[in-house]
Structure formats: structure tokens, C-alpha cells
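We store sequence with structure; for instance:
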Amino acid sequence: MLISEYNRLGEASAIDFAATLVAIPSFTAALASSRPFASKSELRERAAEAAAAWDDEEVELALAGHPRIGERPDRSEPGAEHSAREQGAVQGAEADVLARIAEGNRRYEARFDRIFLVRAAGRTPAEILAQLEERLGNDDATELAVVASELRDITLLRLDESVTE
């Protein structure tokens, strides 16, 4: 979408578009209400500011819309197309790596009571598995901070891929 097209969207459509980046109401409202943007870089700057303000509850809320690593996204979720593309490399991983990721997902969820979230785009299945195994050793506060950082990275990457000048 062109930045000029985003600027012209109605409020509800602008919020719906922002929800495909991340389903956090404060974020989607901030982007929609800050229009018009003079450039994509101005939009990205505002998105980064809004993402930096997320609290723990908002991060947890956003996880509800993300599929587990190695699983197909629910097509009814606003960011499903992004998730499918981002996890494309994982879908083609060797069976033993997929099994280890699935087992790591179970251990992670038992440990932290949330899904494992990682920026999958640009990472190999082996790199994702290594991240998963490493992060299982984090304490709760450290891991929540890592999750928030990964979510911000995912959100801004989706914005970069979705909006052009």
C-alpha cells in the first residue's frame, strides 16, 4: 500500500490495516489518529514510538494472534498472511528440526505460559530452534522483555514490507 493510500483510508480501515501489523489497540489507534504522514519514514517513526510504549499486558494480548512457530496461522487473524510468509522457511524444515521445534514449543509454553515468539523472517529453522532452546533458560522478566523486542521487530518489519512511498 502506498503511504498516500494509507493516509486516505477511513478511520476503521486504517485501524484494520494497522492490526495486520500487530493487534494491539493502542498501536492501531495511534497510527490511525496520527495521519496524514508525509512519508513512510514518518509513519515508521510513529510506529516505533507507539511500539516502544507497549506494556506487558499489550504484549501478551498480541501473542493471541500469532501462531506457534512451525504451525500454520489461523486465517481469521488480521496478521495471518504476514505470519504465513514469515514462517515459510520453517514449514520446509527437516522433520527432525520440526519435531524439536514442536517439543521446544511445548516446553516453552509450560515454562512461560505463552507461545514462543521470534522474528522468523530471515532466520533458518536451525537458528529459530537455537533461539528457542537458548531462551528457555531466561528468567520470566528477561524473557518477557525479549518477547516484546521480537514483537516490535516483527511489527516494524511488517510495516516495512506493507507500505511504500
Observations:
- DSSP finds ten helices and no strands in the chain.
- Residues 3-162 form a domain with the UraD-like fold (CATH 1.10.3330.10).
- The two ends are 9 Å apart (CA to CA).
- The CA atoms of residues 82 and 158 lie 7 Å apart.
